[in-house]
């Protein structure tokens, strides 16, 4: 296929030009977080990395990410040594901004390479759809908003994830895929949510024979086992040696945080909180008890600690049990049918389960669902039907991350541009399914997409005009409830597609 | 920018086969191989590649408009002219101040108010435009345009508002005009819609306009858009509308005068050739006069109403009358109490403000003839009257050939070239030229991309050369306010999209039939691109020798002037070729070769 235009490289060039123009854009506290980590890793011995707390933004990513920051800090010296001082809080000279923004763009090359490999490795008949999917990830508004405006290194990390997923496609590189994923876990532990799918896939597809599960491939199992131990050893070994593991874990897993994040991520718990809010007014009529303390916390949804007035409290244990339960269901199918497509489906569903039911979920975690799903969204029209509401809901739910006036047109126009372009292109590229389509799902997604337009208009413009600065939680609540419906709907839809194909 | 699109859907319209250059954007496949092996010749064609056959332009157009809008807005995140630069600030403050003046003061005082602080010196349409924007902005935050206290305001929300006004003005005027112009011109030449979409994107991504309007800050696209609308009315054969738009362009920014001789020559030409058409002439004349009258009417009515209310245009004189700024020696003949006095007073003041004859030949370092000549001969030593006369004569000499050609051969497809030729003539030789005025010749020249063979290597090479040289001469202006990065990003991006140096030398490869003109173009352009590249390195890393702090700027000006002179000659030559005035058998051969 010669006519895969525009090529990934061409898109990367133009996207880079756009991202460089975004250098002076709004940047969140994550910018200072990463500057602080550059300073910590550069100026302190490794033993102190996880103890340093001059800044409130302490190091809370696993050791490989700290090492990554250390490598970046070697270049940062050239740009502006002042940013490498731990006490230089909130330091943002233009050299610092340019440097940190540039590192995000440069490390994103991993993503470009991974996507290139993804298109290369897909079968000839799927080259064009895969190419379109690859471009949709490369130009994703999620990555643009989170990485290049808000500030994080997701392009790099998701690049590694895709690289690992692509390597899992061929038998010869499955081992590399597993080890790369282990390394990814040592970069950012959020990917633990996807680990069950990897575990099952590697176990069934790599360590056990294709015919029978009692035919154990000891050689493969040994290679994988020692490889993973080596990767984790390299990451955590020194900290075990210094006896710092409890401190490290307390940094990585801060359980003191609440059920919902500052802004409600569009998941089950957002809907649960929303229901609880409504019940406060309804409960007295139904004769239910209302917890007055909870009612009085007016700032609900804006502080970490969520407590419920009518509905029962949710514990961390409950959320984990639910997450694991909904992860295991698709894994059963993966165990029985360890093909690459099923594997990607299972990874996606693990992402869904963790996002929908997890504890203290951040809205940025939606990428954990969207990005793996994009790889198979064009398999046929039924997949696309489930993908569409997710694409809309997931990206709309990221809007509250940027609240400054100057970035408003960027986030909305870019997202609309991306949705129009790729939903149109996908619509033409996805082959028809050989199974009957799910009528309701199609209509649901169309209606759903249509609702997003008045919603965005209300939340971004009308609310301000009607109410001024009152009821600031309303747009946030509408956005997350709306997005939660979309994510949940697409999850149910995808579950159906996954189990019937 | 676009995903691949084979299509299960029926194409809305059949791709046109009749076009005579449907393949210029794709490398022509060798006759032996199948056409499916064609590939895009430059990245912009690749981005629109999936839209080649079956995509409706109602799908592609919104995407193009969104994409170019995103680049504009992102570029606007950078600083503007005069940002954190007290005491006078810059163009941004001028525009903001005009909104303050027009919304806070009676109409009669607009052109008189404190002229030392960015006094209004653009024609009335700009004043009305400022008034409208100031009214809207005043609703959002009255402190932005409060009289006196808002001077030099650097509120970040105000910046967002100001940036938005530039974009909205552009999307209401320049962009619809460009879309319609490209559609009409490409239809006129039988260029297919896919190539037209490429040309449109290239025109809208022009680095110069984005850098000057959306980064450095001004509303040039309003004036340029009105001129484009005027050109596109000509294409549609609606001469009266074309006059209306052109007068509005003049009424927005007097710089549109650069185009006026060619426009006048063309409109006169269509009234005389092939046969004299008196009714058309009268129609054009009457419509022009009426438009001018309507343009000034609000100012006159406002001034008369103010007199009626007892508000003086110049309250600082405490009721005393001052002589007029122009025709001062005849002022005494006028009755200061007559009902028509406000009209005369306003007209005189507007003319005086809009055409600053009193200023010197050139103000800043600008890449035109006078500024370059000044390096060799110190022009300061000559009387300014002599210089003004010389400037007038040279300008007339530069614009006459182009105007003559378009007058005797008033073909509508030649209009962009004629406008470009006269605008180059003005830019090079007239006085009081500003660096940013290079946008004027660049606009019609870039519009050539939508015409016949517009995307061929030769045209792309020349249009690209003019544009990249144009932004390069604006670099000193931009770097003064720390806008190097948007300059590099936007100009390199445009060069990349169109396959131009320094990103690619593909436009100069002559596959098949090498010609002397092609070779000369390649050599000439290469010398200039090399000079620009070396200059950038030198400017960035070398300090100027002692006593010559302006050395880099002077070199920039010199190289720019020569390059622009070449662009002028190229436009003129193509205008003459296109007019068919040289059509003997010999020159026809030459014409075929050069295209």
Task: Fill in the keyword field for this structure.
heterodimer, A: 501 residues, mainly alpha, 2 domains, 21 helices, globular, B: mainly alpha, 22 helices, disordered N terminus, disordered C terminus, EC 2.4.1.- (chain B)
Structure description:
The complex is a heterodimer of chains A (501) and B (595). With 501 residues, chain A is an all-alpha fold. Chain A folds into 2 domains: 8-241, no CATH class; 316-500. Chain A has helices at residues 8-21, 29-43, 63-79, 94-107, 109-121, 127-138, 141-151, 154-167, 174-187, 195-207, 218-241, 245-252, 268-286, 292-296, 316-336, 340-357, 367-376, 381-396, 408-429, 439-467, 473-500. The longest helix of chain A has 29 residues, at 439-467. The relative contact order of chain A is 0.10. Chain B has helices at 43-47, 57-75, 91-104, 124-140, 156-172, 174-189, 193-204, 207-217, 220-235, 239-252, 260-272, 278-309, 341-354, 369-376, 384-408, 415-429, 439-447, 457-479, 484-497, 516-541, 551-579, 585-594, and strands at residues 26-27, 39-40. Chain B has a domain at 361-594. By secondary structure, chain B is an all-alpha fold. Chain B contains 22 helices and 2 strands. A two-stranded antiparallel sheet of chain B has the order 1-2. In chain B, helix 15 (384-408) packs parallel to helix 21 (551-579), helix 16 packs antiparallel against helix 21 (551-579) and helix 18 (457-479) runs antiparallel to helix 21 (551-579). Classes of the chains: A mainly alpha (501), B mainly alpha (595). At the A-B interface, helix 1, helix 6 and helix 19 of A face strand 2, helix 1, helix 2, helix 5 and helix 19 of B.
């Amino acid at each position: 296929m010669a006519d895969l235009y525009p090529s990934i490289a061409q898109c990367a060039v133009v996207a880079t030009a756009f991202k460089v123009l975004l250098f002076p854009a709004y940047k969140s506290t994550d910018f200072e977080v990463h500057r602080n980590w550059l300073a910590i890793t550069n100026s302190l011995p490794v033993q102190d990395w996880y103890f340093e707390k001059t800044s409130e933004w302490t190091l809370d990513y696993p050791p490989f990410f700290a090492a990554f920051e250390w490598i970046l800090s070697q270049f940062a010296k050239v740009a502006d040594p002042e940013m490498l001082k731990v006490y230089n809080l909130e330091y943002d000279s233009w050299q610092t901004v340019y440097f940190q923004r540039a590192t995000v763009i440069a490390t994103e090359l991993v993503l470009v390479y991974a996507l290139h490999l993804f298109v290369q490795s897909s079968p000839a008949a799927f080259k064009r759809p895969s190419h379109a999917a690859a471009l949709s990830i490369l130009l994703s508004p999620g990555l643009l908003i989170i990485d290049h405006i808000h500030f994080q290194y997701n392009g790099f990390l998701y690049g590694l994830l895709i690289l690992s997923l692509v390597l899992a496609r061929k038998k010869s590189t499955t081992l590399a895929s597993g080890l790369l994923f282990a390394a990814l876990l040592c970069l950012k532990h959020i990917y633990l949510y996807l680990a069950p799918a990897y575990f099952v896939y590697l176990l069934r597809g790599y360590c056990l024979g294709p015919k029978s599960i009692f035919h154990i491939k000891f050689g493969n199992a040994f290679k994988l086992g020692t490889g993973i131990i080596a990767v984790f050893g390299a990451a955590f070994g020194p900290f075990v040696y210094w006896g710092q593991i409890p401190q490290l874990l307390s940094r990585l897993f801060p359980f003191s945080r609440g059920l919902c994040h500052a802004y409600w991520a569009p998941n089950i718990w957002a809907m649960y909180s929303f229901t609880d809010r409504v019940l406060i007014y309804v409960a007295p009529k139904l004769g239910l008890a209302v917890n007055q303390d909870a009612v009085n916390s007016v700032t609900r949804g804006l502080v970490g600690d969520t407590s419920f007035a009518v509905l029962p409290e949710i514990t961390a244990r409950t959320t984990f049990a639910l997450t694991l339960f909904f992860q295991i269901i698709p894994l059963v199918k993966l165990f029985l049918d360890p093909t690459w497509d099923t594997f990607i489906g299972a990874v996606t569903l693990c992402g869904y389960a963790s996002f929908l039911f997890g504890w203290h979920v951040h809205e940025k975690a939606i990428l954990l669902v969207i990005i793996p799903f994009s790889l198979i969204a064009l398999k046929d029209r039924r997949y696309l039907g489930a993908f569409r509401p997710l694409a809309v809901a997931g990206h709309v739910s990221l809007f509250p991350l940027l609240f400054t006036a100057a970035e408003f047109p960027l986030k909305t126009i870019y997202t609309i541009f991306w949705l129009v372009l790729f939903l149109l292109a996908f619509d033409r590229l996805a082959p028809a399914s050989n199974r009957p389509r799910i009528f309701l799902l199609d209509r649901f997604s169309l209606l759903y997409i249509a609702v997003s337009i008045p919603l965005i208009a209300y939340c971004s413009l009308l609310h301000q005009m009607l109410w001024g600065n009152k009821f600031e939680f309303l747009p946030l609540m509408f956005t997350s409830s709306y997005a939660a419906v979309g994510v949940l709907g697409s999850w149910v839809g995808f579950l159906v597609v996954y189990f019937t194909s | 920018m676009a995903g691949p699109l084979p299509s299960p859907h029926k194409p809305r319209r059949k791709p046109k086969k009749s076009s005579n250059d449907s393949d210029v954007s794709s490398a022509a496949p060798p006759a032996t191989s199948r056409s499916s092996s064609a590939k895009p010749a430059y990245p912009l064609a690749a981005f629109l590649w999936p839209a080649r056959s079956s995509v409706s332009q109602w799908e592609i157009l919104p995407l193009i408009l969104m994409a170019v809008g995103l680049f504009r807005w992102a570029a606007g995140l950078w600083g503007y002219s005069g940002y954190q630069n007290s005491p006078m600030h810059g163009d941004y403050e001028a525009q903001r101040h005009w909104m303050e003046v027009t919304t806070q003061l009676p109409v009669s005082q607009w052109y008189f108010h404190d002229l030392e602080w960015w006094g209004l010196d653009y024609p009335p349409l700009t004043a009305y435009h400022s008034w409208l924007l100031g009214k809207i902005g005043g609703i959002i935050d009255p402190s932005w345009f409060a009289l006196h206290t808002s001077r030099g305001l650097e509120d970040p929300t105000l910046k967002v508002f100001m940036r938005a006004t530039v974009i909205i003005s552009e999307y209401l005027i320049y962009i619809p005009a460009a879309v319609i112009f490209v559609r009409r011109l490409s239809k006129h030449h039988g260029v297919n819609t896919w190539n037209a979409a490429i040309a449109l994107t290239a025109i809208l991504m022009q680095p110069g306009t984005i850098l000057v309007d959306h980064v450095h800050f001004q509303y040039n696209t309003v004036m340029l858009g009105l001129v484009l609308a005027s050109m596109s009315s000509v294409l549609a054969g609606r001469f009266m509308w074309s006059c209306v738009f052109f007068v509005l362009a003049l009424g927005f920014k007097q710089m549109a005068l650069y185009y006026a001789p060619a426009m006048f020559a063309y409109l006169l030409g269509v009234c005389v050739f092939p046969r004299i058409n008196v009714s058309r002439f009268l129609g054009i004349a009457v419509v022009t006069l009426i438009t001018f009258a309507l343009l000034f009417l609000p100012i006159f009515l406002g001034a008369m109403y103010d007199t009626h209310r007892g508000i003086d245009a110049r309250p600082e004189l405490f009721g005393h009358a001052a002589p007029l700024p122009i025709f001062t020696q005849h002022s005494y003949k006028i009755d200061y109490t007559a009902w028509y006095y406000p009209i005369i007073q306003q007209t005189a003041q507007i003319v005086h403000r809009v055409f600053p004859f009193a200023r010197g030949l050139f103000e800043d370092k600008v890449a035109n003839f006078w500024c370059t000549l000044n390096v060799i001969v110190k022009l300061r030593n000559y009387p300014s009257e002599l210089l003004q006369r010389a400037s007038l004569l040279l300008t007339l000499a530069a614009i006459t050939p182009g105007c003559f050609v378009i007058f005797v051969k008033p073909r509508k497809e030649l209009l962009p070239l004629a406008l470009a030729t006269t605008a180059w003539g003005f830019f090079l030789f007239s006085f009081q030229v500003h660096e940013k005025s290079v946008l004027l010749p660049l606009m019609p020249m870039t519009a050539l991309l939508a015409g016949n063979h517009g995307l061929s290597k030769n045209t792309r090479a020349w249009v690209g050369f003019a544009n990249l040289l144009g932004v390069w001469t604006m670099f000193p202006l931009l770097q003064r306010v720390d806008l190097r990065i948007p300059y590099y990003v936007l100009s390199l991006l445009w060069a990349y999209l169109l396959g131009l140096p320094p990103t690619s030398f593909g436009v100069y490869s002559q596959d098949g039939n090498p010609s002397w003109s092609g070779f000369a173009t390649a050599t000439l352009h290469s010398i200039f691109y090399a000079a620009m590249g070396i200059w950038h390195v030198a400017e960035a890393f070398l300090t100027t020798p002692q006593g010559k702090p302006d050395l880099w700027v002077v070199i920039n000006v010199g190289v720019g002037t020569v390059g622009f002179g070449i662009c002028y000659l190229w436009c003129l030559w193509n205008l003459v070729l296109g007019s068919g005035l040289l059509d003997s058998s010999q020159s026809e051969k030459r014409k075929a070769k050069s295209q």
